[in-house]
Design brief:
276 residues; single chain; alpha/beta
């Protein structure tokens, strides 16, 4: 499958967020990060995800600047770290993030975790203020459970656009997916390849053989079939292109049911401060 088969329009929702993006967690080598962002954008990606905690916002911004893609065509998201979640620090740190990224605004700003300095009223009031200033276009949250989403929706006049969580065949997040569907919140999957575990799942390997695809492509196609946006990390051109080619994998009902029936459950990201 060649990348020329697909256009950025093939994964863009009506709300403007492409369903396939480039994740940059642990993409810490500056030169490699710049190159992977540039390469992904020139491959066709139009969604790039970063965070203050990743320490690579400057490199992500440089990759965007080097790519032969206009800024207005790129959906750019970053996240505010837990130590910056009081009102003043949200405002200040986000301004710093914009400077590092070399942009006037981001398309989506997330609260990275409901932890440490997070206070729904205080934190989210700052997000609303940033939106009113035109520095962010959409408000997002990350690693929120339904009870956290309930409270956030209660205190915010602005809509919550997205909840970014770990999601893959070993952690399908059915309850959260249903909650987000019910409340018009996009679910965005980080670690959609279960940090490489998808290559060890027999069911995915069998489906991959059937479609002449990789297990990674099958996992991404399954999530897309569930209406979930995916942001797999990739640094090499081969992985960037392999993930992009997942757009050509169309799973049938039997494939989807087989993946749905996988019994194994394994969360990959589980820090001490996690809310679950």
């Amino acid at each position: 499958m060649s990348q020329e088969q697909f256009s950025p329009d093939s994964v863009e929702r009506a709300n403007g967020m492409p369903m396939l993006g480039l994740g940059t967690w642990e993409n810490e080598d500056p030169e490699q990060c710049v190159e992977s962002v540039r390469s992904a954008l020139e491959t066709g990606y139009r969604h790039v995800d970063t965070a203050q905690a990743y320490g690579n916002e400057e490199s992500v911004g440089e990759g965007i600047a080097q790519a032969d893609v206009p800024r207005e065509e790129i959906f750019l998201a970053t996240k505010v770290w837990t130590s910056n979640l009081n009102y003043d620090d949200v405002i200040h740190s986000t301004t710093e993030s914009l400077d590092k990224l070399g942009v006037e605004s981001v398309d989506l700003l997330y609260t990275h975790w409901p932890a440490e300095e997070y206070d729904p009223e205080d934190t989210l009031a700052a997000f609303a203020e940033l939106k009113s200033q035109g520095k962010i276009d959409r408000i997002g949250v990350s690693n929120f459970e339904p009870e956290h989403l309930d409270k956030a929706r209660e205190v915010l006049d602005e809509p919550i656009f997205a909840n970014q969580v770990e999601c893959h065949p070993l952690l399908p997040q059915q309850e959260l997916r249903e909650y987000c569907d019910d409340h018009d919140i996009e679910l965005v999957a980080y670690s959609p390849l279960a940090r490489g575990k998808v290559f060890e799942i027999d069911e995915l390997s069998e489906i991959a053989d059937k479609h002449d695809a990789s297990e990674a492509q099958v996992s991404l196609a399954w999530l897309r079939a569930k209406g979930v946006t995916v942001i797999p990390k990739a640094t090499s051109d081969d992985h960037i292109e392999d993930n992009w080619a997942s757009l050509g994998v169309d799973l049938d009902d039997e494939d989807i049911e087989t993946i749905d029936d996988i019994d194994e459950r394994e969360r990959q990201v589980d820090p001490d401060f996690a809310p679950w």
